[in-house]
Design a protein that fits this description.
about 15% strand; three-stranded antiparallel beta sheet; globular; single chain; alpha/beta; 13 helices; binds pyridoxal-5'-phosphate
Length: about 400
């Protein structure tokens, strides 16, 4: 039996999402933009999904745009804020040193186009300081983009305080909430965001679908040109089965969120404390076990000195355990994780990254097997090679 502890990379499809998708494929095959009955039925299903998603986020349905996932949502939001900024002569963008590639590579591209990108540092445990953001905002700041929850270390940033700050300073505020939605309470009003990116496959929905919240009042500026779908904000026939599956998955995730969080948190504590007791020179990244610092309940990030995290992932895989050395997008990279370096770790420590991301399908038995398997594998990887 596979022990899957890589839910931050992707999650198994929830049966409720699968059923909703099959229903949509069978019954709502019309084009939501068509005028005839098949089209109208698809349109109604689409708009019902939009209203349900909006209510889960505290948004108005008109503020929800369906996309192909987190990457597209992040790109669209950042490009839109940059274009609005440029129109007003503002070319400064503030972001953090721990963003996902979907944000980081987008702002890097904007730097090549003449934008001034500033990467805010984080504390040694992975938190952004609201005061530092306040000091860094300038009259020409077009956008502040801070990830809601880290895909690598699980820290949850002080969204409501950042949102209030950005609003008070009239700066657009975007958050990559791909790892947060479905796992922790997210509310676009409370959090004061102008843009919020989410992705279905991180909470038991299908891959290749997501959404972007765009606050009402911001202009229509599509990145993709074509038809008038999504109220002109995103051209292209909507992927209705995927959208319906996403919303079914999110409803279920939100309904069981507190109960799931309590279970995942106790496993996270057990893994962190158990491994700290059995593996020398191991660091828990982000919030320590039993800490009140806001964090994803199911994500445990470790740095294990003297090993290559990817080698450990291969060894775990050989024993039927699916984990990750860090972000799935950076797997195979010869460079140490920039996120772990941003915490002040040495490249040596950062190379020894191990991310265990838990989910609803895990069991007490999985945790016990991980606790038994990891220490001898680490000891073996640390043993110097003997040349005959
Ligand atoms: N942002 C974060 C924080 C993520 O973890 C991911 C997932 O890989 C993405 C963005 C990209 O989302 P998607 O895979 O839907 O494009």
């Amino acid at each position: 039996m596979l022990i899957y502890v890589d839910h931050a990379a992707t999650t198994p499809l929830r049966p409720c999402a699968q059923e909703a998708m099959l229903h949509a494929i069978r019954h709502w095959w019309g084009n939501p933009s068509s005028l005839h009955r098949a089209g109208r039925e698809a349109h109604e299903a689409l708009e019902s999904a939009r209203a349900r998603l909006a209510s889960l986020l505290g948004a108005h349905p008109r503020e929800v745009v369906f996309t192909s996932g987190g990457t597209e949502s992040d790109n669209t939001a950042i490009r839109m804020a940059a274009a609005l900024g440029a129109l007003a002569g503002k070319r400064h963008i503030l972001t953090t040193a721990i963003e996902h590639h979907a944000v980081r590579h987008t702002v890097e591209a904007l730097a090549e186009e003449g934008f001034d990108i500033e990467y805010l540092p984080v504390s040694a445990d992975g938190y952004v300081s609201v005061d530092r953001v306040a000091e860094a905002i300038r009259p020409d700041t077009a956008l502040v983009s801070v990830m809601y929850a880290s895909n690598e270390i699980g820290t949850i940033q002080p969204m409501a305080a950042l949102g209030a700050l950005c609003r008070a300073r009239s700066v657009l505020f975007h958050t990559d909430a791909v790892q947060a939605v479905g796992h922790t309470s997210v509310d676009v009003q409370r959090d004061g965001v102008d843009f919020l990116a989410l992705s279905a496959h991180k909470f038991g929905g299908p891959r290749g679908v997501g959404a972007l919240y765009i606050r009402a009042g911001l202009p229509v500026m599509p990145r993709m040109r074509g038809g008038a779908q999504e109220a002109g904000r995103r051209a292209g026939t909507e992927n209705l089965p995927a959208i319906v599956g996403m919303v079914a998955a999110l409803e279920e995730a939100v309904a069981s969120m507190d109960e799931t969080a309590a279970r995942l948190e106790s496993w996270r504590n057990a893994l962190a404390e158990g491994l700290r007791a059995t593996v020398p020179q191991i660091t828990v990244n982000g919030a320590p076990p039993r800490s009140a610092a806001p964090h994803l309940p199911g994500l445990l990030s470790l740095s294990i000195e003297g090993i290559d995290g990817e080698a450990l992932v291969y060894r775990l895989d050989a024993e039927g355990m699916a984990a990750s050395a860090g972000s799935a997008c950076a797997a195979g990279s010869p460079d140490p994780s920039p996120v772990l370096l941003a915490l002040g770790q040495t490249p040596q420590q950062a190379f020894g990254g191990l991310r265990l991301s838990l989910g609803e399908g895990n069991t007490d038995e999985d945790i016990a097997r991980l606790l038994a398997a990891i220490p001898p594998l680490v000891a073996d990887l640390r043993r110097p090679l003997v040349h005959m």
